[in-house]
């Protein structure tokens, strides 16, 4: 993930697409490969990230409403 001091909607969408690709890659792995220490830590990070993405989407919707 890249840090943006003042992200645009395009920047956010680019990061979301990259995350979606990573999720798809994780889903493609075997179940055995998902239950190790590294992937557990990644899963905890994904949960946190999922919450952050939900908040970002809410903020984008509010901004879009204000602009309209």
Overview features:
68 residues; mainly alpha
Briefly summarize what is shown.
The protein has 68 residues and is an all-alpha fold. The protein is built from three helices and no strands. The longest helix has 31 residues, at 37-67.
Largest sheet: none
Count of helical stretches: 3
Could you give the distance between the termini?
A: 30 Å
**Topology as H/E string?**
HHH
Number of domains: 1
Question: How much helical structure, as a percent, in the residues?
Answer: over 70%
- Shape, principal axes of CA atoms: elongated
Structure description:
The chain is mostly helical. It has one domain. The protein contains 3 helices and no strands. The chain has helices spanning 9-28, 31-34, 37-67. The chain is elongated, with a radius of gyration of 15 Å. The model has no long low-confidence stretch (mean pLDDT 79).
Set out the fold topology.
Layout: H1 9-28, H2 31-34, H3 37-67
